[in-house]
Amino acid sequence: MPENNFDEFKLKLEKEHQFPCVYMFKFIIPADNKKMAIAEAIFNADVEISQKNSSTGKYISITAKQVALNADEIILVYKKALEIEGLIAL
Known about the structure:
CATH class: Alpha Beta
Number of domains: 1
Number of strands: 4
Shape: globular
């Protein structure tokens, strides 16, 4: 996601959410224990994370609900997540 898309995304978040709020992140990553550990580490310790394996077992979908104080906190999580090779942000 190019930097200018984050600017547009921030405006959309600020328009559609009243902060602080619980924000739900959804990602798909290749089924790999190391990548899963890295993905879980980008969230706060108190975050509720659920995961589900794909029917073929090649991918894992991750859903995380985290309290965000502002749009910048959400964008920071996405920036960290996009550093994980093979990750798809939904």
